Structures are given as structure tokens and as C-alpha cells.
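Retry 2 of 3 after timeout on previous attempt. Resubmitting C-alpha cells to design endpoint.
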């Protein structure tokens, strides 16, 4: 078994993954791969809570703001590019840090993607038309009917994910979730999931504070710049969609901000639902000293060495 290890820092949004990832990367003198799908896009800096310039300067990061919202970029594209980057980094490093809030993207790198049927021609266009004419709620209701299990864990505010699950479920006449977790080729590296957790009220408090900080940092101005491109897939996400509705005079500004907080809390809940299904995660308290978390990680790495 390979002595190369990918340490994946996971957990709900606003829990402190970036800070821990930087601490560990500095300790192991290594680099960070980001698996946060919202932070891939260079035009979406404030609303995705991308690492600051100061944080990026502390340790080399990859897959942060490397794409444009105009680009088509799938989880399959990311999986391939991330594996290529890992091959390169493992030439000189025994440990690489992966930091991510997107469970699907983290698992794509560590476990590989599942194989799905070829989609019926025209189905995606029909679902996109339904989204346009009847709104996001219609797709959410359809998914609950076709695949109630996946409905519990998917980001229900992400139309791209909903359409993907629906087109597979309808084409195959079986739930999208039934295609997940297929047996895959093992990776040429070992992995360790480290999950940050906190009581629900603490997570919600941190989310509310982060949204307020985003607004102070200029999120509304960022959204105004992006308003002409508001129909792009990348922008159908929490923090942007609610402020587009404010600009369309559907919401007051205060209500839009409260909706961002509410939808981000819902997103964090789904992140945790996804992660709790993974029995491999080493869970640590979000406010534990980073040095203490490092000790736990070193113990786990030692036990992995003995197991090989």
C-alpha cells in the first residue's frame, strides 16, 4: 500500500476548515487542494468565502478561483484535474491536504465517481425548461418523488444538481442514489478524513456572523457586477440568488439577507447529513486546539502505517 496520504478536512460551512487546513499544510510543509465547488470561480470571491489573499499567501493552494463562471466545469472535470495535481504533488510530498465543503467533490477525489446511464436525448432541455417556467420548487418536488433519499442530502438550492439527479432517475427508471457508492478502482494513495463538528446553535451562529461579514465586505456590490449574468449555472447558489431577487424588487434587502442566512443553514444541515453517512471520518471539535487535532491525526497516521 502507498505511503502517500491525502488528509481531507471536511465539515459544514463556516466551521473553520480553511484555518485548520493551512495549519496542517504548514506543519507538513505541503500544499492544499480545494474541493469547494463554489470557490472555483474567480468572479465569486466574497459570496463563497474564498480564502483571503493573506491566507493564500501562507501556503500554496490549488483550485481556488481558477475558472470563470462562463466556463463549463463538472465534478468529473475536477476529479481528473485534482488527481493529475495529486500525482504531481506526491512526487515530492508524502502528505497533501484537501479542504472542502462539497462532499461530492471530496468523495470524487478519494473514492472516484459512480457510473451513470446515458441520458435520454432532450431530457436535460426539458428539465431546464421546467425550471424556467415553474421554478426551483418544481424540481425539488420531482426529486422528492423520484428519489427521497437523495432529496435529503443534495443541495436543494442547486438546480444543476437537481437536474442531474432527475435526468438519471428518469432515464434509468430507478433512483439516482441507487447508482452511488459503486465499487471503484482503489486510488494510488491512502486517505484520512478529518471532520470538524460543533453544536447546531454554534454552526448557525457562525453562519449568521459570516453572512454579516460578507455584506460588510461588499457582497451586494459583487452581486450587482454579476447581475447581467445571473442566469449562469455557477450563480444559481446561496448568497447570489437571494440578492438577485432583491435587485429584481422581489425582496427587501433585509429579507434577502435573512434568506441567505436561512438557506446557508439548510445547506450546512445537508452537508452534515452527507458526512454522517461516512464511517471513516475522524471527528474533532471545531474549537479544539489545532495542536491537539494534529496529535490525533499523527496517532491515526501511525496506526495506518502499522496496518500496511
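Retry 2 succeeded. Sequence:
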Amino acid at each position: 500500500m502507498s505511503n502517500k496520504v491525502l488528509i481531507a478536512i471536511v465539515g459544514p460551512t463556516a466551521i473553520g476548515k480553511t484555518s485548520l487546513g493551512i495549519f496542517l499544510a504548514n506543519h507538513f510543509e505541503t500544499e492544499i487542494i480545494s474541493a469547494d465547488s463554489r470557490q472555483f470561480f474567480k468572479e465569486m470571491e466574497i459570496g463563497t468565502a474564498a480564502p483571503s489573499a493573506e491566507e493564500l499567501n501562507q501556503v500554496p493552494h490549488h483550485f481556488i478561483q481558477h475558472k470563470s463562471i462562463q466556463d463549463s466545469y463538472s465534478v468529473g472535470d475536477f476529479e481528473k484535474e485534482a488527481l493529475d495535481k495529486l500525482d504531481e504533488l506526491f512526487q515530492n510530498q508524502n502528505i497533501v491536504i484537501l479542504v472542502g465543503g462539497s462532499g461530492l467533490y471530496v468523495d470524487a477525489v478519494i473514492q472516484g465517481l459512480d457510473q451513470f446511464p446515458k441520458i435520454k436525448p432532450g431530457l436535460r432541455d426539458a428539465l431546464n425548461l421546467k425550471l424556467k417556467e415553474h421554478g426551483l420548487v418544481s424540481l425539488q418536488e420531482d426529486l422528492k418523488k423520484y428519489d427521497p433519499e437523495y432529496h435529503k442530502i443534495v443541495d436543494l438550492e442547486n438546480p444543476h444538481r437537481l437536474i442531474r439527479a432527475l435526468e438519471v432517475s428518469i432515464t434509468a427508471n430507478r433512483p439516482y442514489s441507487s447508482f452511488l457508492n459503486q465499487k471503484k478502482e482503489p486510488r494510488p494513495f491512502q486517505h484520512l478524513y478529518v471532520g470538524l463538528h460543533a453544536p447546531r446553535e454554534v454552526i448557525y451562529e457562525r453562519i449568521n456572523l459570516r453572512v454579516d461579514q460578507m455584506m460588510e465586505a461588499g457582497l451586494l456590490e459583487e452581486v450587482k457586477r454579476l447581475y447581467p449574468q445571473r442566469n449562469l449555472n455557477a450563480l444559481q447558489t446561496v448568497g447570489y440568488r437571494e440578492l438577485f431577487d432583491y435587485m429584481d424588487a422581489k425582496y427587501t434587502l433585509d429579507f434577502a439577507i435573512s434568506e441567505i442566512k436561512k438557506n446557508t443553514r439548510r445547506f450546512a444541515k445537508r452537508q452534515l447529513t452527507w458526512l454522517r453517512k461516512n464511517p471513516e471520518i475522524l471527528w474533532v471539535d471545531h474549537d479544539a486546539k489545532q495542536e491537539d487535532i494534529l496529535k490525533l491525526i499523527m496517532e491515526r497516521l501511525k496506526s495506518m502505517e502499522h496496518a500496511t
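Attempt log closed. The first strand starts at residue 5 and ends at 10.
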